[in-house]
Design brief:
Shape: flat
Distance between the termini: 65 Å
Low-confidence stretches: none
Helix content: 10-25%
Strand content: 25-35%
Mean pLDDT: 95
């Protein structure tokens, strides 16, 4: 299918700020700007002067970009520059409209194992070799192959659970008895997953010990993430690959937990807070704060510490 610049402008609507260059062009696929050809739509959100080089060197003739990427030099290149507020967001919406892979068909794959007590919405999709226990699966939810959905899991609408994810296994809970032996704490809670949540491949979300582990609306969990028992992940928060969220920890709305971060049990990460790459968080993080390092500390303190260390190294 050939998509014209006019079709692109109509699809993006109010997001369009301006169009520079020829408008009679079209494209039939999307590609990264450094690998695009004449048939590709691409986008550029790099800061000057890198953006000028990328736009000059790309084979793409139609490029989504922001105001900072538009200059007399880029205009002179003869490309069609479609100016939007957020180039990456615009590209996302173009892909969703014309190029996104088809959603798996609704229904239960013949190889899936679904408990008779499960309630699976008619429009949900359960992939091959997946187990669904005595759980509920909401409308338009996709559970990919080889996933495990345990008893007591409640999944909302339009949720995506990728291949190999485990939702609702017991958490890690033990108590030493009078002989010093470990007795296992039975987990009788569940997992509540609200609408529009995504859980990445091979991630684990433990069921609660007594209450529920809760993933609030719109939060996104990357691949290979561990969410321990009784955790709450806030609305539209992101927890990125290899992160570990300890039991009974609360991650606030809109928070960002970066790759390989470790959050100890029982703490609170504030709304719209940011936990940096590989951070070790052992105490509460206030709303809107940015913490880094091990142990994690406010970004200003972390940068000051690094500067002090560099000064000591220079003295040696």
């Amino acid at each position: 299918m050939k998509i014209t610049v006019d079709m692109l402008v109509e699809a993006l609507g109010d997001a369009i700020r301006a169009v520079h260059g020829p408008t009679e062009r079209d494209f039939s696929r999307v590609a990264p700007i450094d690998r695009a050809d004449e048939a590709s739509l691409s986008f550029c959100n790099k800061a000057p002067p890198a953006c000028e080089r990328l736009i000059r060197e790309t084979g793409s003739r139609v490029i989504l970009c922001g105001e900072p990427q538009v200059s007399s030099q880029t205009l002179a290149l003869g490309k069609t520059l479609v100016v939007v507020a957020e180039p990456r967001l615009a590209m996302l919406r173009v892909i969703k409209r014309w190029f996104a892979p088809a959603r798996p068909p609704a229904g239960v794959h013949p190889s899936a194992d679904v408990d008779p007590r499960a309630e699976v919405a008619r429009t949900a999709s359960i992939g091959p070799f997946t187990h669904v226990g005595a759980a509920t699966v909401g409308a338009d939810t996709v559970v990919q192959g080889h996933a495990y959905i345990g008893d007591g899991v409640r999944i909302g609408a339009r949720v995506i659970i990728q291949a190999g994810a485990i939702v609702g296994a017991d958490g890690f809970g033990y108590q030493r008895n009078e002989h010093g032996e470990l007795e296992r704490f039975p987990h009788v809670g569940g997992v509540l997953i609200e609408d529009d949540v995504e859980i990445g491949a091979c991630s684990c979300v433990d069921r609660g010990a007594l209450g529920d582990t809760v993933l609030r609306q719109g939060c996104k969990i990357d691949n290979l993430v561990h969410i321990a028992h009784n955790v709450t992940i806030g609305q539209h928060a992101l927890v990125i690959a290899h992160a570990m969220v300890g039991g009974s920890t609360e991650v606030g709305d809109g928070a960002w937990v970066a790759p390989s971060a470790t959050l100890r049990d029982g703490i609170r990460i504030g709304h719209h807070a940011t936990v940096g790459l590989g951070a070790l968080v052992v105490k509460d993080v206030p709303d809107g704060a940015v913490v880094m390092g091990a142990p994690a500390r406010p970004m200003s303190e972390y940068k000051a510490l690094l500067a002090a260390l560099r000064t000591l190294e220079a003295r040696e």
